[in-house]
Amino acid sequence: xxxxxxKRVTGKNQIGNKLSAEGNVTHKTFNPKLxxxxxxxxxxxxxxxxxxxxxxxxxxxxxxxxxxxxxxAAFLYAIADEIMALxxxxxxxxxxxxxxxxxRAIGERGRTIFQLQSFAKLVEEGSWIDATxxxxxxxxxxxxxxxxxxxxxxxxxxxxxxxxxFPLAFSTAGGDTASALAAGCPVIVxxxxxxxxxxxxVASAIIKAAEKTGMPNGVFSNxxxxxxxxxxxxxxHPNVKAVGFTGSIxxxxxxFNKAASRETPIPxxxxxxxxxxxxxxPEALKTRGExxxxxxxxxxxxxxxxFCTNPGLILGIESDDFSKFITNLxxxxxKIDPTCMLHxxxxxxxxxxxxxxxxxxxxxxxxxxxxxxxxxxxxxxxxVVNGSDFIENPNLHQxxxxxxxxxxxxxxxxxxEKVVSxxxxxxTGTILGNNSEINEYNYxxxxxxxxxxxxxxxxxxTGVEVxxxxxxxxxxxxxxxxxxxSVGTSSIKRxxxxxxxxxxxxxxxxxxxxxxxxxxxxxxxxxxxxNGKI
Length: 534
Description:
This protein has helices spanning 47-64, 69-85, 88-98, 102-125, 175-183, 196-212, 229-236, 249-260, 282-301, 320-333, 344-358, 387-392, 413-421, 435-438, 442-449; strands at 13-15, 18-20, 26-27, 30-31, 36-37, 42-43, 132-134, 148-154, 158-161, 187-190, 220-223, 242-246, 268-271, 277-280, 313-317, 364-368, 381-386, 404-410, 426-432, 452-457, 496-502, 523-525, 528-530.
């Protein structure tokens, strides 16, 4: 493991196609595994640089929004190629700024590439635009029917806040950026100060790709800032039309409030906190309890618990089998060697939040890794509380970001249903059950479906597949808008709005809406899906 980030990093902001360092405030990133600062200084953006980035994006939008799906796809494919061309520099920088292992870095890079290529294929094919056509009926009585045609159009410059726990896949060229660029929206990334070097390298790849494929200057910018000033200035800028965010409830809600209080409010698509309840049903525990305990010990500690889908709450009905499951899970989780967290601040928050839960009245600890660890390594833990006490104590409903789970023992099915009905919105919910017993818990499943964006059957919530059917979102506070996902190709819908043309001459319409359908895309024509011409 190297101790400092690569020399290729300059520490400057990427404002369109130029590097800029106008300010005199700098910060350094931190290597949590070695417990030392990395060498490079990163210049924090000034308000003037923020304004310049947004103005360039606004100018670029007028040209970029007109580009064909094929041209945008070429840009996205080129970004993927340029990221791969960064080679070991990117992997080493990623590791030195996150404490995460090389295998995780390589895997996350692969996911980032796959996301970019998936959106490239989406816009290349073109049907995502949801072309809808209702042709005219001029002789309809008592009134003629107009010719009306609808497509999705991009909304304008988008600000993306890079995430702390995924330096690549949810950051500079992550899902928010890839989907916004695919939609036709220029992007300004607020780089996360914990991985500024990683962000700068990826930003350089995006700019190279933009230049190679003839994108307008300002289609992408990457700026840094360790405090709130830069982020607030971006959200409040009148030419910013939407925000993508992955992080804490406090951070996401603050941005949401800022955006809503603007003279012209804008949407904030924030993916925030989630404790991802796991419901264990009796028959499953009886037949597979030991196996499930091993599986969940691994899931709770995976990536040091630093996933938004970490299983932070395990629910079950009191029984000998549930007690055995708790014992087995407790034994298994302390066998696993602790791993490094992303930053000392995150480790400090984890310790404080864990202590807050286990110190609550009527809560008792059943597992807590006891051996000494290296600095910034997290000690995994489990705590148990009764269902009625969980319901009465809102403090127990809070997310602990790290390798921790709270186990809730319910006295019967009714209390289990009451616990679920008292939960806030979540990204995921999981059912561990045998097929034969599921029908007995239909009401419980209905309650759970009202609380989550995705239900997993006999699996683990950790691991989010990038595909068209994925929903990575949920009712507040897991996200600010449960109608959308931040993962998968459907996430492009966040950055567009529906737009109709009425009675326009065929030759003046966008290609997607012309009678000829030269692009061969799937369209809804007079309420029938077709790839043909009119």
